[in-house]
Amino acid sequence: MASSTAFFPERYSIKDLELFSGIKAHTIRAWERRYKLLEPARSDTNIRSYGADDLRTLLNTSLLLKDGMSISSIAALSGKERDERIRSGIRAKWGNDEALNALKLAMVGYDEELFERTSRNYRSDHGFEALVEQLYLPLLTMIGLLWQSDVICPAQEHFCSNLIRQKIVSAIDVLPLARGEGTSLVALYLPEHEIHELGLLYLQYRLRNEGRRSIYLGESVPLEDLRDVVGHWPGPMDICAILTVFPRPGNEPAYLTKIETLIPDARVNFHFCGPVLQVVPEPSLPERIHVYPNIPAMLKALLGGRSIQTDN
Length: 312
Known about the structure:
Helix content: 40-55%
Number of strands: 7
Shape: elongated
């Protein structure tokens, strides 16, 4: 694993460590006090701050504890020894927490090998859809929180997101195209100013895997272009988006009403989910606009309420 701290923020607060690792602040302080596991700096007012090595140590410690080591044994190891034990001890049978922490560790160290081995083992044991839904999507949610809090830098987010994107695109590429001229079409898009496409790509994978005919329009699509797509399709259509940062708070109802007004065709229905829509109540929406709490709920509606298959 990389030993340089050049890519990392200079210092982390104990709250940053708690958010990143999932280990409570009081536990971190206890390990620091009893075992000298971490080496924080202190300000003139006695406020702790931690370096990149402390963050890596904490993530390694979490994994080694899950693997059965005691905290005293872990604390007695050097940082290099902990790294080596993690590398040699990657488990195909790791649960969600262990595998997720391994991916976090891979992200902070730009460690593609650790990311790939963890993903491959988890997928082999649980399947591709579980890999995405149980590991990648929670990881991306956490990355969003960390990025907004300046706990990670944009390069770390891009490193991780691009690895995930490669896997989803590869999974889509091997699936057959759905056929049928008279069938309903699902059009997937992200609005202008919205570039977080991984959830939408996964929705494309699930739809194609279930045999639904769909087209992927990608990010930053103007509403006028959606109207053009509708004009080229003679049958019923479902238009879907996952909204992460757009529209801005307070503008959600206006955006949803605008899109329905711009495309008044009764054969078109609109389906949305995403963090920015959690405050929008369904009863307040136009008839053809549907908002869901998550991707599985949207999928169930798009598939006509039938059960959603998972791969094994």
